Amino acid sequence: MDMGKDTVRRNNVTVTGNPEGRTVVLAHGFGCDQNMWRLTVPALSDDYRVVLFDYVGSGRSDPSAFSEQRYASLDGYAQDVVDVCEALDLTDAVFVGHSVSAMTGVLAAARVPERIGALVMIGPSPRYIDDEGYRGGFSAADIDELLDSLESNYLGWSAVMAPVIMGNPERPELGDELKNSFCATDPDMARVFARTTFLSDSRDDLKTVSVPTLVLECTQDVIAPREVGAFVHRSIPGSTLVTLEATGHCPHLSAPEATNAAIRSFLAALR
Amino acid sequence: MSPLKIVTRDATTGPVLEVVGDLDFAHAPALRERISTLVVPPGRRLVLDLGGLEFCDSSGITALIAAHSHAQAARAEVVLASVPANTLRILQMVGLDQVFTVQPDSDAATRT
Amino acid sequence: MMCSAGERPDPYDAEDGGVPPAAFASLLEDSVEELYENAPCGYLSTLMDGTVAKINATLLTWLGLRREDVVGRMRFSDLLSVGGKLYHETHFAPLLRMQGEISGIALEMRQAGGGRISVLVSSVVKRGTTGEPLLIRTTVFDASDRRAYEEELLRGRRVADEARRQAEADRARLQQALAVLQQSLLPDTLPPIPGVEAATHYHTASSDQVGGDFYDVFPVDGKRFGFFLGDVCGKGPEAAAVTSLTRYTLRAAAVHDPDPVAALTTLNKVLHQRYTGSGDPRFCTAVFGTLEPDAATGRVGVHLGSGGHPPALVVRADGTVDPLHTPGGLLVGVLPTARFVTTTAVLAPGDTLVLHTDGLTEARTGSDRTSLFGEDALRDFLAAHAGRSPGDLIGALITLLDGFGDGLDDDTALLALGVPADRTTPDAR
């Protein structure tokens, strides 16, 4: 029980929605935190019990729990998912993962199959870097550029943001003052997450998926192009592919109605 | 801890150093330094007046031994004057009361 | 939409000291449209999906693009470098969606010639009357200089981080080396002595300094065992060198002649020869002794000598504590010839011989840390623990040392050699 409480605090776990409903776990991707689901939660909370959390190193998770070694591979992030599932003693939950979290969900489902009964993958990509016979959309040099971009934006943030991220009670005014606080995180931890995300190769793990799976892709997504969506759909037999009329990598923000409708109809069909 | 003060004066017998304050790890090197530059003519006497000594540990004892070696090399002698009771006890414990001539005060120590 | 500057109320009126007519005329030529197109920053309006709807001349010039190739044809993210695109998709766009505005984000834009331009981007979502998002307005500032400056700062920080890591690693390595050196000055294990239990403890005051305390216990011949414990004056690597010399000199001397005076005299000669005239006199205090167990009586004879060291203490089973005085024993290494004094004692079952260095008795006590623990308090403490085994006694002394906290600022060595109490006759004296 104590370990469960620790996980709840560590991963800033929030449980909302209908306590009687089937549990839906919403997992954010690289860049932001559980706030990303702001427009998704209202569409689910009447019928489903909704679990939100922040990966260690993101949002308002406990920064002291971060370990570069653990989070140097997606297994570390998948363990966060497993820990959350175990802390809440979930059975047969639906895991909704955005971006890299779609793959984290695949890894977690393989470890605790009894706890995760279905997957929704929003903008998934099992590998971002091009490979022989595979187009992920990026070169290794592109990923280095992203790491540079992170660095240049965190320069201004790190010192100012630290008190907010750490939840410094002595300077509550900072929380209101800083407009860009949602996606703020410790720059070193963000760099680890970025590196782990964009250098990962989970193509083989897709074959382990044996639960009902919905793949959601956008018509225009720089990060997860349609070829990648097709690859994921092809690699998971029996999966459903839905292409949303949306641009960008975050359809749950840019096209919330269509995204919510697709998730809801998938959930309804599960019963 | 009080700082170390060393006052040097000349008596007919030779130099007299009044040592006031603490002779510890931090301050004893200052006394050693002073003594190493001190000229004691052969046959004369170096008097260390310890009446103002407040604290003395093994570093202080080392400084006193350095004074002894310095004087001996110059074929002079060393006399300790006004040694506080606890320092005298330490000197006795380490057997140095046999090595140093100890006088009650610097008047007695500078008497020819 | 457009209004000529001339229609505005004239801020300068006809007051004295106003703007000269020629300069004022040039102000009049300005227009909002002109300002939009040629402002010293880039302007950009896009649809919610990022498609560029309007872009000003300044930004087109910076990017080396023609308006007709951009408007309606490219999205904002198409203008960015790949790293910028990724950052845009993972941070910028979601934040803008959630907050309606975002400011001061550093991105890189691509130039037609293949170059890059570092920019600072701020965006705000313009909403319709019912709050529905209509378009995104974006300003772009040339941040090349700021970026270069930031890169300097980042490089500086990386160098400083690296230096700090290096310093921490160096310190850890030094501490490890010192710990190994310290261990080499002490025996790994003590030899079993028939009828005697031995226990030791070494307290290191600082992990950054090698201390100068030492001890050892070793077999001498078929029936006797040698032991010593002492304190080299000073700290640090020089003191450690003296400690090492001292330890091996005493061990070697004991092989030749285990008599305490002979061993201490040899050590005195070696230290004096080595360090006199070096300008850095080095010496130590030491107790050296031998134990001779008598299997017939269960008693153990002690023969020890001391050079300037605090007296060893015999803790009797009945609670008396006998100091083994050796008056006149001189600091070792001070004079070319030194006098050492020996004494003897007999340990009966339940008695323990305790040797210590003065770190213990010179620990500062009291709330203001001005008084010393002292010899008398040590004797009382040992008396209160009489009858305990050497291991228990050392354990109690370790607790005592721990209790001194920061009042204990010197290394401390402890050695206890005792005869276990005779269990068949608990009252044996």
TrEMBL record, chain B:
Which Gene3D superfamilies does the protein's record reference? STAS domain (3.30.750.24)
Report the coiled-coil segments. Answer: none
Indicate the segments forming the STAS domain, all copies: 16-112
Q: Which PROSITE patterns match?
A: STAS
Checking InterPro entries in the record gives: Anti-sigma_ant, STAS_dom, STAS_dom_sf
MF-aspect GO terms: anti-sigma factor antagonist activity
Top-level taxon of origin: Bacteria
Which NCBIfam families does the protein's record reference? ant_ant_sig
* Annotated family: Belongs to the anti-sigma-factor antagonist family.
Q: What is this protein called?
A: Anti-sigma factor antagonist
